[in-house]
Amino acid sequence: MGKDKSSKRSTANKRAHQSSAAQSVAPATPNWPPFRPPLPVTDLMLTSPAPGFENSIAAIHNFWPKSLCRDYVTFLKTLPLTTTPGHPKRGEAVRQNDRYQVDDPAFSQKLWIETGLKDALRNDSVRHLWRGDVIGLNQNIRIYRYSPNQFFDCHYDDSQLVTLPSTTEPSGTVSGKTTWTLLLYLTSSAEGCIGGETVFYPHDRKSEKEAIVIAPETGMLLLHKHGDDCLLHEGREVKAGEKWILRSDLVIPK
After folding, report:
1. Which pLDDT value is given to residue 168?
2. Rounded CA gap, 250 and 159, in Å?
3. CATH number of residue 149's parent domain
4. What total of structural domains would you count in the chain?
């Protein structure tokens, strides 16, 4: 039987703030650093960091080399990050971090194609996971920085309706919906980030005994299902250093 998430999503402090709908998007696209060395640097292999939850959580280790992550963190520090509101709206999860977001179709396409991600996710062995053929990434690119004492309380990620550029459709665009969250970790304990684990709770309640804890790993790509089948999850408090994340979403045809 499918889970009914409608009641959960009306519960206070369990909804993620949907950035594309509720926050202004930066007007200018950044001059992102080039992918050096050319990607992928190794064969991309999708693994499950949570045995038993292969259909909900997946990861690609060493998706980006540490040198590229370091270059991006240096660059991202120059962007005009804004601090999230201290008092979220009713029904939104408490989040304390600094963030930046921009609609950038060119960069999302670059991230999709030039990293090898497109080929990895369309492999016959894993394509059943995404609830459809992935046609690209959400062009709404989000950057998160978590400093000491900052965190993201328990929440669910909602699916979004989006429009992507298309070279085959007469309109030049294709309608799609997001199905999985994409998180690219740019720092970890190797760079002095202590804490900041992403934690999933399988039974829609916060239980440390059932917690699936995934520590930040520099260059790791973490994917998790969202929408009706999203697991309750949180970003634990950062104790020291900074946790930097690049966020997008997988998109399938609507």
Report:
1. 84
2. 10
3. 2.60.120.620
4. 1
